[in-house]
Design goal:
The protein is mainly β. It has helices at residues 6-24, 30-33, 62-67, 70-87, 245-250, 324-327, 396-399, and strands spanning 44-45, 55-57, 88-91, 94-97, 104-106, 113-121, 126-131, 134-140, 178-185, 188-193, 196-203, 221-223, 229-238, 253-254, 264-266, 271-274, 277-280, 288-295, 298-306, 311-318, 329-334, 370-378, 381-386, 389-395, 418-423, 429-438.
Amino acid sequence: MKKRTSNSNLVLSIVSLVIVLVCLGYMATSAEAGELNRPPEGFVALFNGRDLAGWKGLSGNPKSRLEMSREELAKAQAEADEDMLAHWKVVDGALCFDGKGHSLCTVKDYGDFEMLVDWKIEKGGDSGIYLRGTPQVQIWDTANRGVGAQVGSGGLYNNKKGASKPLKMADKPIGQWNTFRIIMIGELVTIYLNDVLVVENVVLENYWERDKPIYPNGQIELQSHGSLLYFRNVFIREITNKLTEQEKADGFKLLFNGKDLAGWQGNIQGYVVKDGTIVVEPELGGGNLYTAQEYGDFIMRFEFKLTPGANNGLGIRTPMNVNAAYQGMELQILDNTASKYKNLKPYQFHGSIYGVVPAKRGYLKAVGMWNFQEVIAKGKQITVKLNGTTIVDADIQKASTPETTDGRDHPGLKRDKGYIGFCGHGDKLAFRSLRIKTLK
């Protein structure tokens, strides 16, 4: 590679200064920036808020990169990284693009994932997010009616066979921050824009090779389309039904392999595996689903997605085919926002140890979004964490002395082991990423 001349360095410095000055008018204050880029529970930050670590320039599309030799790819990547550094900067905790150059790409490839990202554009702005290196989740100024932007952002713009437009227009006014929640499992993509569902289980088509399905993995790209762009709070959670390296080191094991109900028993007809999740299908029988083995002290992590008014439960240390709320313990899984539940007792809302300990409320995500929950059972101490917040932390012996909150007998509180089960109550909902660690 040729060495840059001093004039070239001066030009680069001026360009960088211009980027910074432009971006400063649109970024958060330093105090606000300090609160940015902190991933929620279960996610990791793709952008650290300080530099471009974990990112690279665009060196070609998935097909062209595969056709390059190792030497050709290395050269192309070096040139792409140089271009990236010239046009992408970090200002006050946000990624800022000057409208020139090319896309910003993750160094790592991803398969199935859930992604959160804030974005902002200016008047006439046009951008997008490539999933597995493939275009694209559309971002644009809805005033650009000449190109069809009035439908709103979030659609899978390059689809030809399947839906390409969003279900609703949910964009905020130009100059304000928007938030995407993008879920990709297999070929299917679901997208929320500012908490509004705009794409629901739509196949992302392979733009580069139309006769093939979408690639099983690939990089995520923040696309440039010749306009100023801003991104922040870029977080991702891989959905693989596989343990992280840290979980493996800590002794966790999978409870669900993402493919079938091996390791489970009970009503395996009413609990159906779909796209790497366990979906409760009441019309197929409902009922309860239990682990194949018993557990005493443990840490269990899982995710769940509610439908409106959904009611289920997590039975722990329970015998099979009994009322787990009394013969074992049942931790409520419930849509707290449903009007039909407004008069419930405090110990009946989500996360509560039914009839014994009420849970803190206000930490469930909107219905239709995935929640992350951790349950720690250690002796008489039961702890429930929902989306990173502890909503129950109680000694069940003390909580039931001299009597339980509901005044009923709960002999299951004295059990030191039993099955873990999902207690169906005739409603549809879904579970995924189930893993457990046995405590000694």
